Amino acid sequence: MPGFEVLYQAAALCLTYPDDDFRVRLPLLREAAPQLRAFTDHAAVTPQGELQAHYVEVFDFKNRHSLYLSWWTDGDTRNRGMSLVRFKELYRAHGLEFTDEELPDFLPAVLEFASRTGDVGMLTEHRDALDQLRSRLTAFGTPYACVLDAVCATLPPASTGARR
């Protein structure tokens, strides 16, 4: 799926905690990835503290909006450990080392990986999870849903169901 590298990098930045650097990047994100304008326009006019509080409310309080892809397939089970190892092995196979600041299945990390390598295998493999997350973000009424809309629009349809 060539050609979506800039979108994936921009989406990765939009889905990370909105620190001061995020605000500085907003004009560049807006121009580089027009598919994300609904989100970047919202972020640009939302006070920093409010944007940060919303991020925490959406992503940090419950797993219903988990940004960790293996959570959607494995939940909090022993199987998840093996899934995390697969992510790390994939990164290493492409000459990248994961820093351990986040788990390797953190969606922004996976998007950045896809942006840097062009390998969308993990995004495609977790398409059903991305659709579920997108649906839940839409139902929650958060502007983050449009980021997932843009990413999902670049991937083939999901083929199987995951846990809900």
Provide structural commentary:
Pfam families: Nitrate_red_del (PF02613). The structure is a single chain. The protein is an all-alpha fold and 164 residues long. The chain is built from 10 helices and no strands. α1 runs antiparallel to α10 (144-152). The chain is globular. The two termini are 27 Å apart.
- Look at the helices and sheets and give the structural class: mainly alpha
Q: Can you summarize the main beta sheet? A: none
SSE order:
HHHHHHHHHH
Helical fraction: 55-70%
Number of contiguous helices: 10
Provide the residue-averaged pLDDT. 89
Spans of at least 5 consecutive residues with low confidence:
none
What distance lies between the first and last C-alpha atoms, to the nearest angstrom? 27 Å
**Count of beta strands:** 0
Strand content: under 5%
Global morphology: globular
Rg over C-alpha atoms, rounded to the nearest angstrom:
15 Å
Pfam families: Nitrate_red_del
Keywords: Nitrate assimilation
InterPro entries: DMSO/NO3_reduct_chaperone (IPR020945), NO3_reductase_chaperone_NarJ (IPR003765), TorD-like_sf (IPR036411)
Protein name: Nitrate reductase molybdenum cofactor assembly chaperone
Topology at a glance:
Elements: H1 5-14, H2 20-32, H3 37-45, H4 48-60, H5 69-74, H6 79-93, H7 107-117, H8 121-125, H9 127-140, H10 144-152
Helix pairs in contact: 1-7, 1-10, 2-3, 9-10
Compact summary:
With 164 residues, the protein is mainly α. It has helices spanning 5-14, 20-32, 37-45, 48-60, 69-74, 79-93, 107-117, 121-125, 127-140, 144-152. The chain is globular and about 40 Å long.
